[in-house]
């Protein structure tokens, strides 16, 4: 509801920032893990951000009581779920019915975004043919964006490889739960947001009592997996224990074959 909306009726209450936070987390299945099948969970939140192919796996692990990697992989391979550029011109994983519902409505916007950003640099390029060629080039192999752009430009003398690569390929990491609102303070303060969102990058974060309290990174060296948590402010002993326990569970999910899993929980950073 906008600030200039209709007058508040007598006896009604305005939603507090905490109430907005809890409504968002409930809608996103982040207040508690839920017992749902993978496709139903993806539909419940109307798609999951998927700039990096691993992001939906982590997102569903955070939301579902009984989730295994094979559950999502199977849904992608049998085409129950589709990955495509969708809301905010970012990659999402959606069910096929939701994709068919939403994508046609977004198509004019997505084409306008491409023209606004790369229009001059891709003038005269048949975008449908470009996408078809990129799909063929990516079949059965992985290419970086610069590699893909150069291959696409090879068939189009004088074309801009960077513009071609960006026109058809994955964006930096983005988390709709954190950023898809005009008022982002329901999840984090402006000061913390400036540390979470640096340039195009959005750090992986830890929520404590529903708000951003830390960032985390994961690394693997040989048989040892390490998850490092860097809080933005001092955490209570109980919160530190809860964060450390959840980090251990995440490593067990991401690195089940590691002979050693370590959690490094720093003090305030």
Q: Layout of SSEs?
A:
Elements: H1 17-27, H2 38-44, E1 48-49, H3 55-63, H4 69-77, E2 81-85, E3 91-95, H5 96-118, H6 127-138, H7 145-154, H8 161-168, H9 176-179, H10 190-196, E4 197-198, E5 201-202, E6 205-208, E7 211-221, E8 224-231, H11 237-254, E9 260-265
Parallel strand pairs: 8-9
Antiparallel strand pairs: 1-3, 2-3, 4-5, 6-7, 7-8
What would you note in describing this structure?
With 269 residues, this protein is an alpha+beta fold. The protein folds into 3 domains: 19-98, no CATH class; 122-171; 187-265, no CATH class. The chain has 11 helices and 9 strands. The protein has a 4-stranded mixed β-sheet with strand order 6-7-8-9, covered by helices on one side. Strands 1-3-2 form a 3-stranded antiparallel β-sheet. A two-stranded antiparallel sheet has the order 4-5. Strand 2 (81-85) and strand 3 form a beta hairpin. The model has no long low-confidence stretch (mean pLDDT 86). It comes from Planobispora longispora. Pfam families: AlkZ-like.
Offer a quick outline of the entry.
The chain is an alpha+beta fold and 269 residues long. The chain has helices at 17-27, 38-44, 55-63, 69-77, 96-118, 127-138, 145-154, 161-168, 176-179, 190-196, 237-254, and strands at 48-49, 81-85, 91-95, 197-198, 201-202, 205-208, 211-221, 224-231, 260-265.
What class would the helix/strand composition place it in?
alpha+beta
Number of separate strands? 9
Q: Round the mean pLDDT to the nearest integer and report it.
A: 86
**Strand order in the sheet with the most strands:** 6-7-8-9
Uncertain segments: none
| Helix count, DSSP H or I runs of 4 or more residues | 11
Shape: globular
Helix content: 40-55%
Largest sheet: 4 strands, mixed
Q: What is the distance, rounded to the nearest whole angstrom, between the alpha carbons of the first and last residues?
A: 36 Å
Number of domains: 3
Helix-strand pattern: HHEHHEEHHHHHHEEEEEHE
Strand content: 15-25%
Q: Determine Rg (CA atoms, Å).
A: 21 Å
């Amino acid at each position: 509801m906008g600030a200039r909306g209709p007058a508040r009726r007598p006896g009604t209450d305005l939603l507090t920032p905490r109430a907005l936070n809890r409504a968002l987390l409930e809608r996103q299945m982040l207040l508690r893990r839920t017992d749902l099948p993978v496709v139903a969970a993806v539909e419940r939140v109307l798609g999951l951000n998927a700039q990096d192919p691993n992001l939906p796996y982590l997102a569903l692990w955070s939301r579902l009581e009984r989730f295994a990697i094979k559950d999502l992989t199977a849904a992608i391979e049998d085409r129950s779920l589709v990955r495509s550029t969708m809301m905010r011109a970012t990659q999402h994983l959606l069910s096929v019915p939701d994709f068919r519902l939403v994508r046609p409505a977004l198509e004019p916007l997505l084409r306008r975004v491409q023209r606004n950003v790369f229009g001059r640099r891709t003038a005269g390029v048949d975008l449908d043919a470009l996408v078809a060629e990129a799909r063929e080039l990516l079949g059965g192999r992985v290419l970086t964006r610069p590699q893909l752009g150069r291959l696409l430009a090879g068939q189009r003398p004088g074309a801009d490889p960077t513009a071609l690569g960006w026109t058809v390929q994955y964006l930096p990491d983005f988390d709709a739960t954190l950023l898809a609102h005009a008022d982002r303070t329901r999840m984090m303060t402006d000061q913390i947001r400036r540390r979470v969102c640096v340039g195009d990058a959005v750090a992986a974060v830890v929520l404590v009592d529903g708000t951003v309290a830390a960032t985390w990174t994961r690394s693997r060296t040989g048989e040892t997996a390490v998850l490092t948590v860097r809080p933005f402010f001092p955490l209570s002993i109980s919160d530190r224990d809860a964060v450390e326990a959840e980090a251990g569970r995440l490593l067990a999910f991401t690195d089940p074959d590691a002979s050693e899993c370590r959690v490094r929980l720093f003090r305030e950073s």
